[in-house]
Write a structure and sequence with these properties.
heterodimer, A: 43% strand, B: four-stranded antiparallel β-sheet, three-stranded antiparallel β-sheet, 8 strands, disordered N terminus
């Protein structure tokens, strides 16, 4: 399992491209394996399920979450220990995954992905014909 | 004679240095985000005419595992984050999330009537509304001419 983002931007923030003026964070992630799937759990506090995008291309899994900044009416932020922002991270998966059967769910700010392992292709016998 | 006296702040919490080191290591391997505190959960405090709003990042923590206490002007948030299911250690490819009990206590700018406090969680954010009681609101004093 390779973390494609760790070398450059993991843990650090950069500003989202385009017009959004929010930082982009590398989300805290656990990955574990079961007999028939990889389970990825990603911490994305403050992200609504509609703001999540998951893409798998070849073996590269990209996870993105877009935040809707919290701005309560009539209140001003006076003390801040965390910043809101978007989340983005990508991984190269070591196992072949059946991309058509990925399941994703969101609960309490945790995105859980179930990535079923692809069944190995049945071996093919090649008949040799006499020329 | 020079007497070496370490600042008391340095010694007040010996674990804070360790926590900071751990946080920086996590950052190095692509783990956690930047936070202005090593304590959990990180809090943001909002102030308005009607009172104070406290928001906390508690991803993966169920509202049933959070306990809030308000005593005069002190707010205490306690709870625990519990892993989902029982995954054997050796099946992890990557492990960055932390679990366990947590607690924070903060001082509010005024005393709060605990009956008026409302708390909700949404997408891993705990929001606590602490309305300012009428008795704690500033009063305008009419000045009469003598």
């Amino acid at each position: 399992m390779t973390d494609n983002t760790s070398g450059v931007s993991a843990g650090t923030e950069r500003t989202a491209q385009g017009t959004r003026d929010v930082p982009v964070f590398s989300p805290t992630t656990d990955i574990h394996e079961t007999a028939d799937a990889l389970i990825v759990t990603v911490e994305m506090p403050g992200i609504d399920k509609d703001g999540v995008n998951v893409a798998l291309e070849q073996r590269e899994l990209t996870i993105a979450g877009h935040c809707r900044p919290f701005a309560p009416d009539g209140y001003a932020l006076t003390h801040a220990e965390y910043r809101e922002g978007d989340f983005e991270r990508s991984f190269t998966l070591s196992d072949a995954i059946d991309g058509s059967a990925i399941q994703a769910s969101m609960k309490d700010g945790i995105l859980t992905l179930t990535l079923p392992k692809a069944k190995p292709e049945p071996s093919k016998t090649i008949n040799v014909t006499a020329g | 004679m020079v007497r070496y006296s370490p600042g008391t702040a340095l010694w007040s919490d010996p674990l804070s240095t360790l926590r900071r080191i751990q946080e920086e290591m996590n950052r190095g391997v692509g783990g956690s985000r930047w936070h202005a505190t090593t304590e959990f959960p990180p809090l943001n405090v909002w102030r308005g005419e009607g009172g104070v709003l406290v928001t906390a990042e508690v991803p993966g923590v169920s509202i049933d595992d959070i306990e809030l206490t308000v005593h005069q002007n002190t707010l205490t948030i306690k709870g625990k984050s519990v892993p989902d299911g029982n995954v054997p250690e050796e099946s992890f490819h990557r492990r960055e999330r932390h679990y366990g009990p947590f607690g924070r206590t903060i001082a509010l700018p005024y005393g709060v009537d605990s009956d008026g406090v409302k708390a909700t969680t949404n997408n891993g954010i705990l929001t606590i509304e602490l309305p300012r009681p009428e008795t704690e609101k500033p009063k305008r004093i009419e000045i009469t001419q003598g």
